């Protein structure tokens, strides 16, 4: 490879790493600011609570858990929520819908709101999709219960949803729902994306091997970050490698502003070279470790005992399967 081509390749790699780093930092900041973990429930209005409960319990096998109401609604609440002022109290029931988000049912007594469901292209149109590993069997069962389907199951032949089969059905009160199935995964997974869509099937023991990632506790993550510091302060390459096996994934990727290191050997070599430049320098905390789900950041300083903050910076960690898989290094300055 010519020098110019090699330089272009290195530049492209650096740009890709910088873009990925920027995206990860932006996502981490959004997660910290919003504090959102995921979908807790989906709320829907039903004309008759007993009818809806019968369908979700007897047909779909879901379990009602909590009840509120009837709750009288004042005029201010109705006005704020764009409701008819003559509508009566509301009763609310929360249903555990298998593995996934719960479903919250609202029944308004003497409702004066519209009784017409939104059309498919109306801004308020929505539906709930239920996952099944055997869509043919599920359709046959629901049909035996008198459920109306809006067509036949359709298998997606190509694209990101290749391998997914879906079909819409209607509840006894007219709401549109969906059955969906992709026991062998979807097309987009073939490209090994950084992020996989959540699926109920992952939560019941059939998670994709490339996606498996246990959410670590804050204490577990902090322990791994402390282990990371121990790695970078360890002077013995063999002991350092042993520590890496406990903290870093085998295919860990470290992204610096100037290069990308992959695997234990690359990082071990870099740390060894760094330590040879300064025999007495040591890494230490600047402040407490920040943790957000399987992401953490460490603000650090490095230098000899007489000037421990000769260099400062921040490390951003991404954890999967109990170990560090991505390490993004920010160096602030040299004092």
From TrEMBL:
UniProt domain VOC: residue ranges: 38-182
Record key words, sorted: Metal-binding, Signal
Signal peptide location: 1-30
Gene Ontology MF annotations: metal ion binding; methylmalonyl-CoA epimerase activity
Metal-binding is among the record's keywords: yes
Protein origin, superkingdom: Bacteria
A Gene Ontology biological process term: L-methylmalonyl-CoA metabolic process
Protein name: SnoaL-like domain-containing protein
């Amino acid at each position: 490879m010519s020098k110019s081509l090699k330089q272009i390749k290195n530049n492209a790699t650096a740009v890709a790493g910088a873009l990925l780093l920027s995206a990860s930092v932006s996502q981490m900041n959004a997660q910290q600011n919003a504090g959102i973990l995921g979908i807790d429930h989906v709320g829907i209005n039903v004309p008759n609570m007993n009818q809806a409960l019968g369908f979700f319990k007897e047909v779909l096998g879901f379990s009602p858990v909590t009840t509120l109401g009837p709750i009288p609604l004042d005029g201010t609440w109705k006005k704020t929520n764009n409701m008819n002022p003559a509508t009566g109290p509301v009763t609310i029931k929360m249903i555990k819908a298998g593995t996934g988000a719960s479903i919250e049912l609202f029944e308004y007594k003497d409702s004066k709101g519209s009784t017409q469901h939104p059309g498919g292209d109306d801004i308020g149109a929505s539906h709930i999709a239920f996952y099944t590993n055997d869509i043919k069997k599920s359709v046959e069962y629901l049909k035996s219960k008198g459920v109306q389907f809006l067509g036949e199951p359709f298998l997606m032949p190509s694209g990101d949803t290749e391998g997914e089969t879906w079909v819409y059905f209607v509840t006894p009160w007219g709401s549109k729902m969906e059955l969906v199935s992709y026991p062998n995964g979807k097309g987009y997974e073939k490209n090994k994306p950084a992020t996989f869509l959540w699926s109920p099937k992952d939560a019941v023991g059939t998670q994709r091997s490339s996606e498996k990632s246990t959410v670590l506790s804050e204490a577990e993550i902090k322990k791994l970050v402390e282990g990371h510091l121990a790695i970078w302060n360890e002077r013995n390459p063999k002991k350092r490698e042993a520590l890496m096996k406990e903290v870093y994934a085998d295919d860990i990727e470290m992204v610096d502003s100037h290069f990308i290191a992959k695997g234990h050997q690359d990082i071990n070599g870099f740390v060894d070279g760094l330590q040879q430049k300064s025999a007495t320098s040591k890494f230490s905390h600047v402040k407490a470790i920040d943790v957000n789900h399987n992401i953490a950041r460490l603000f650090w300083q490095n230098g000899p005992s007489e000037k421990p903050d000769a260099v400062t910076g921040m490390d951003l960690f991404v954890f999967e399967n109990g170990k560090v898989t991505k390490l993004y290094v920010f160096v602030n300055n040299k004092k």
